[in-house]
Amino acid sequence: MQAEPSNRPYEECGVVGIWGAPGAAGLAALGLHALQHRGQEAAGIVSHDESRFYQRKGLGLVGDVFGDPRDIAQLPGDCAIGHNRYATTGATLLRNVQPLFADFEFGGLAVAHNGNLTNAQTLRQALVKRGCIFQSTTDTEVFVHLIAISLYSTVKERLIDAAKQVKGAYSVVCLDQDTLIGLRDPLGVRPLVLGKLAEGGWMLASETCALEIVGAEFVRDVEPGELVVIDKSGVTSCRPFKNTASRFCVFEYIYFSRPDSQVEGRSVYQARKQIGVELAKESPIPADVIVPVPDSGVPSAMGYAAESKLPFEMGIIRNHYVGRTFIEPTDQIRHLGVRMKHSANHSVLAGKRVVLVDDSIVRGTTSRKIVDMVRAAGATEVHMRISSPPTKHPCFYGIDTPEESKLLAATHSVEEMAKVIGVDSLAFISFDGLYRALNHVNRSEASHRYCDACFTSDYPVELVDREGRLIA
Amino acid sequence: MQAEPSNRPYEECGVVGIWGAPGAAGLAALGLHALQHRGQEAAGIVSHDESRFYQRKGLGLVGDVFGDPRDIAQLPGDCAIGHNRYATTGATLLRNVQPLFADFEFGGLAVAHNGNLTNAQTLRQALVKRGCIFQSTTDTEVFVHLIAISLYSTVKERLIDAAKQVKGAYSVVCLDQDTLIGLRDPLGVRPLVLGKLAEGGWMLASETCALEIVGAEFVRDVEPGELVVIDKSGVTSCRPFKNTASRFCVFEYIYFSRPDSQVEGRSVYQARKQIGVELAKESPIPADVIVPVPDSGVPSAMGYAAESKLPFEMGIIRNHYVGRTFIEPTDQIRHLGVRMKHSANHSVLAGKRVVLVDDSIVRGTTSRKIVDMVRAAGATEVHMRISSPPTKHPCFYGIDTPEESKLLAATHSVEEMAKVIGVDSLAFISFDGLYRALNHVNRSEASHRYCDACFTSDYPVELVDREGRLIA
Amino acid sequence: MQAEPSNRPYEECGVVGIWGAPGAAGLAALGLHALQHRGQEAAGIVSHDESRFYQRKGLGLVGDVFGDPRDIAQLPGDCAIGHNRYATTGATLLRNVQPLFADFEFGGLAVAHNGNLTNAQTLRQALVKRGCIFQSTTDTEVFVHLIAISLYSTVKERLIDAAKQVKGAYSVVCLDQDTLIGLRDPLGVRPLVLGKLAEGGWMLASETCALEIVGAEFVRDVEPGELVVIDKSGVTSCRPFKNTASRFCVFEYIYFSRPDSQVEGRSVYQARKQIGVELAKESPIPADVIVPVPDSGVPSAMGYAAESKLPFEMGIIRNHYVGRTFIEPTDQIRHLGVRMKHSANHSVLAGKRVVLVDDSIVRGTTSRKIVDMVRAAGATEVHMRISSPPTKHPCFYGIDTPEESKLLAATHSVEEMAKVIGVDSLAFISFDGLYRALNHVNRSEASHRYCDACFTSDYPVELVDREGRLIA
Amino acid sequence: MQAEPSNRPYEECGVVGIWGAPGAAGLAALGLHALQHRGQEAAGIVSHDESRFYQRKGLGLVGDVFGDPRDIAQLPGDCAIGHNRYATTGATLLRNVQPLFADFEFGGLAVAHNGNLTNAQTLRQALVKRGCIFQSTTDTEVFVHLIAISLYSTVKERLIDAAKQVKGAYSVVCLDQDTLIGLRDPLGVRPLVLGKLAEGGWMLASETCALEIVGAEFVRDVEPGELVVIDKSGVTSCRPFKNTASRFCVFEYIYFSRPDSQVEGRSVYQARKQIGVELAKESPIPADVIVPVPDSGVPSAMGYAAESKLPFEMGIIRNHYVGRTFIEPTDQIRHLGVRMKHSANHSVLAGKRVVLVDDSIVRGTTSRKIVDMVRAAGATEVHMRISSPPTKHPCFYGIDTPEESKLLAATHSVEEMAKVIGVDSLAFISFDGLYRALNHVNRSEASHRYCDACFTSDYPVELVDREGRLIA
Fold first, then answer.
1. Do A72 and B327 touch (CB under 8 A)?
2. Which of B104, B51, B45 is nearest to B80 (CA)?
3. Briefly, what is this protein's role (chains A, B, C, D) (predicted)?
């Protein structure tokens, strides 16, 4: 993930659920820690013991909010759900931190959600008209109110009732006094996996790396449109939606998911390496050294280097101590072109023809700074290879992208982009190359089509609120 | 740098000094940010404008203490010194955060110091007897009192007077109303470099990466035993000590310095790669994949892989969001063998013979956890290669190592260590291999001898206080 | 008000509303400061300018929450309402701090409320059943949901609709984008006054002392059951309830209201003095000195002293620096019988026959401590006179009293109480004496009957939820 | 004490010492709480158990700093000293909070001090010249350094050595590992009393009210110039200075000390009442009501009322919730003449000729506001009577008064002051009247002369640093 905030897409959330394991909140916190890359602004956990619910939420990293063992001790019980959030700043933020919790006629329910509803505003207006009072600006609360007013008698039925009314991309976990439920949207845009804890009990999580950290065994992906119910009788499943071909988010492969996660049964790390291989086949260039923009560019650069038989070097060093806050540079410092997150490793750049490999270009400002830095370190040529197609369209399914006019690729040709960024050459992986790397013949004949709307504008879920979409 | 606190040596400090540049405190903060790897517990800056001194200190990362532009705005002036600190915890900590500042007869003086004095306790007792009142438990305050009671009339002379009384390894920067002074101990154990700011003014810093971030040009290392005085007339230099052969800390190459820094005119990154090459020559092993323990093991592993013609893979993924605090694992969680900082990348480990390359083994507990994790991910064989000789002796020159009895290599043979750590084979770089990688024939004939006392117990500076050394 | 928490009744709230005055939030904060005696646990203000609403809430005194002028600067606009709260402790508190704010179909509405609903739980259950989601545990939120689901089209009509469904004692202020509304319950148990700001604009407040501090002119009490609407066309009034005889809380005279406030057109200070006069007539005793328990006992003691021609002395000194927190005494300190809030003025107690005058006895523990302290200071006799009848029943109308079994007067005769408290004699004002002091012939023939249920159990509003009343 | 900061003199400190009592720190905290009126800005305690010293200091009230029982639990031991401080604001404050602690050759020493040294700057310059490094800007640190460099071998001898070098008004308590020492300056300007704890052990405190709160028995005043040493052998005493007539601060009677304290064997409350009696004799006026400016004016007003046979009424109500911070009034609010601490009780002022009784006039701004408020409440005449002579000169002995040019009485006649303040008449107690009230024939023939320099400019201790006195 690269440097400056809002120059990159940010996944808005990671979710976990634990059922039937002593110390569930501690396990949930570890799972959230493993999913920290999916949201760094806030974290929350709701647990349940035999008698009641407990919750703790806070701004900051999981380790900030749950860093003290006493924080976990105040969340007793064998069941818990948790949530990491990327969110806007401001005084009203805390009320948006998930999981949301509400008392219903039949008891309490906690809900956490990764994704975005495309008809959230429309539904919200209808709910407010009916007399519902919203406390947050999150899509999740739409779910909660739909559940509250549903006339069905069980949480499961009410959740299905709610899910049939919403449109969008989402993975939801819910906890009531008896049951942990996981639900993936009909197209399966956002990921959700099921695991089994070593000493009994079950786990749901956005990615397998969250299972890994607590030693849980990966069982399977929750399937697109599947609702999984975990209670004393074990795991049962139902499919409330009519069958549709799935459209998993291809950006999970390119950038979002952790390289050690498995998505759709495939290693993210290996997928990225293979994209690098395809990229090298499609866009070779004579050079002395292949340098990744760390950390997300590393595997692609390794694949590119291997395929092109050129040396792979860590020519850019990442400063790991960049937190959420730092000196907002004064004009003087800004003028210096300070790079807080990256520095150039002169010893492998000076006098070299350098190929930089990165995962995407959003606004282009970060890329420009990095290229300048590499040239200042003495590179004689700088070429850039991008392991995704040009990002031309915003995401409406849970990723915080700038509006279309701010996307460099939306308004510039590749040649123009090369000039803006200051490189000698620029190339993106092709659609077909990308699909080949993921083991398909090409995009059009892919056995499994992805959601790649940010490249293609082929939006698989209707954009009901588009004109006024909620950004919360 | 690897995971658990106190399993690894920690450099205690980074220092910077700025002279003659508007916004000096902002530049100092950036420099400290680049030196964050040398100390993460606290940070402080003292600045001076035409009329007075200003200071700000706090616990935490540089970005925590100086994250708000207003923090910097309250430190006006063209001159500043700053300090990063690794330190013990506790309520009394803040008074130990440097720079220390004192009012003297002739005006104010701020002092920041990286290293350790080996006669600090002895001097302190004598000073207290004389009526000096200590406010901190730092070695730096010994310097300050020695300066205060010196009968010489200038800061420079008083600093020399003080330096002649102390023994140890140190790089010191001082700021009075007119002058920025840098001083390196006679053997040059700790690093200190001089740079020139692009728009005028001078900079001192522990490493070149701090020059880099503010666009300062590297001028030269401050030499062992050299005192550099920067004032309106420019940079002047003197050598108050009699000539001795220098003994630079070899661990700065192996682990401490940032890979993109240059020390003694040599790239740290390239030195580490070359150590990996030598290690592969000395201790080859049939294997399928070479895997670094990130991040410090990466260049050595690349060198090892290149020399051994085996594939280099990122088989261990580092979680970048591990801060200073996190869930102190409950027994339940500890039982899971949770690894907060690292996770296994199954896709490159399963079914493979793996060579792990790391920089050192201190207590062995972290290594054991990593090996277990790699085996759990399906590695069929695990071999470990270490890019330093066995760490058998504590450091008394500014690095926080455990006492000798806790150093695994002090009490175990290499074969025994392999068993403790759970590897199929274990090898360390030899003394001569290490010196060869640094361009010497071998250790005994090195044109330039290092301080390698942690491996050899050849302590180049007398350990006056040894029995009761201060750990502050 | 006497010392230890929960030994005394606490008024739960004070409210203010400002309409049509620049800097409304600042005026509201001053008004809340003047009403601080009505609630010290939390404070909140919602303001509105031409375009939107702003809010700030926090735990602590008004000066803690709004102590920085920037806090007020972030609450722009000409209209504001504010609230002081007494509340239970705990992490979930903040969501209970008023004013509550909600977005409705027709816009935003802020609501603040002083009092207690006696059918809040019953209504809440019905609302939850309907699908309403509660965020707080306050009665106020019942109002808010009733307004949200009302089918009427204006805030005023919806508020009336809601008010007709609730039972209890309350004074409510509401602010929407155009209007400030004040509403007093049909019996007028809780106070609410209307004032006119010097430079234009209107003010509502629980007591006249809040008008005083901002220089507003007292216009009149809002009448029992009256709804006052303030907007651009001025102040209009309506009476949505059928006429009933009012039942103002007599404890407002005895203890709650500030002595410089006017309630029902009568000075609280003078009323208390007159109660002291009646008490002296009813229960004279030979003594040397009349000593108030400060501060609430001062006027009654002055009246008692004047009537009995005995000297009035400040024999008990109050420590004004007792905040919300202090050393929870260790056993050792508790054993000392430490009195944090009061100390004895030996010079007027030693060797004297002392009459202590206080406003009420709740549990008796504080009285006992004070009596012990006065005896320890050398008093030869200690008599106690109480300016209210015995408190035998809990309040369900907005005052936090202990349950009946904890009220000393509920389980002890006056003679037994005297023994428990350790006094030589004890007397309470009679019902008729109390009414006489308030200018009535006696209780049964009072032209104006008070709510005196805490003394008489004559509860004027039906206790619908009684078995499980909400304590929030 | 009246309202706005810096309009009034503020005593800078209160001190306590406990020796030989389990839970000493808890007792010290209670003592400091009772002395809170002497300093509200910061508080600190140092305790000692058999083996070491513990300290805790913080900004705010005693209850803020020591409000949590765990704070006290971290200060174990049978001995403790504590300090309340009034101090200037700012980031560097904490280092000035007392007790100061230092390690000496012979062990640790904690020192707390109430008062002011008149040669502190002179001594400080000499000490800095010698090489002493100051950490604070307090006079107390001068004591500490003088003790540190003394060549005597015991703390007692070193303290005497230091005391002989300082000039000023002070009461000092010191704690080393064996001994609690109390010392009063030769003229006894500041108070210090000795008490005996009920269950054994000894106590020193600025006022008797601190003994009272922990149930300690008053033994006697520490005498002017007396040094009291408390250790295992009991209490011993010595008089290191040559005999001088004492000069106790008369303002302790008038304003500073708590009314329930005894100073010089006389009740402060009764002294104030008697001043009121004398004032009524000297300056009678036809009026309807005598009204104190609370709280310090209450006893004098009672005395005045009794002597003049006019009714005493609480015509001004104090708001007890004014803390250290509040809305710094905006211009708009300032224009309203807002009185945060006081409000008028209309019912006793309207239509009345009012005599206000207050303790002093410093700048006059507060008096003016109060007079305006009383007139606005309808008073037909307002007269002011002051229970001290005109304050014409600053205090250099530990009370924070404005410089002479800001003292209204220094630049205005009484008639002019009356105009400034807006009263119909103004009178101050005469010197002789004041001395008469304290049982002397008159000032010139007083058996015991007070320090009354703020009225008379008869400064009894040489003002060595006067030109540049330290304000810390």
1. yes
2. B45
3. Catalyzes the formation of phosphoribosylamine from phosphoribosylpyrophosphate (PRPP) and glutamine.
